[in-house]
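User: Sequence for Endonuclease domain-containing protein below. C-alpha cells please.
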Amino acid sequence: MTDAEQLLWSRLRRKQVLGVPFYRQKPIASFIVDFYSAAASLVIELDGSQHFEAEHQANDKERDQALAAVGLLVLRFDNRQVLQELDEVMQVIFCEVERRIPLNPPFTKGEA
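Assistant: C-alpha cells for Endonuclease domain-containing protein:
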C-alpha cells in the first residue's frame, strides 16, 4: 500500500465510520477497487499523479461508470488530499456513508 492508502485504511478499518465495515483491494466485476463498503454501496479510490493524465482520466471515467451501473458510488481522492487534508477527506466519506445508510431507519410492519 502507498502511504496515502495506509493512512486512509487506518481510519476506515475496524468499522470506524458509523460502524460500517470497509474492505481493501476488493475485486468487483473486472476491477480491484482500493476500498469498498458493501453496506454503503461505496467505493473509494485513491489516485496517484498518473491519474491526472488524459488517458488515465478516460479509463477512470469508464471504470466509475461501470461501477455505477452495478449500483456503486465511487469517491475519488488524490494521494495529496489524503496526506494533507485527511480530516476533510474523512468528512466527505462520513457524510456519504451517513447519507447512504440511515442511522435510524423507520420501523417496518411487524416490528415492535
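The chain has four helices and four strands.
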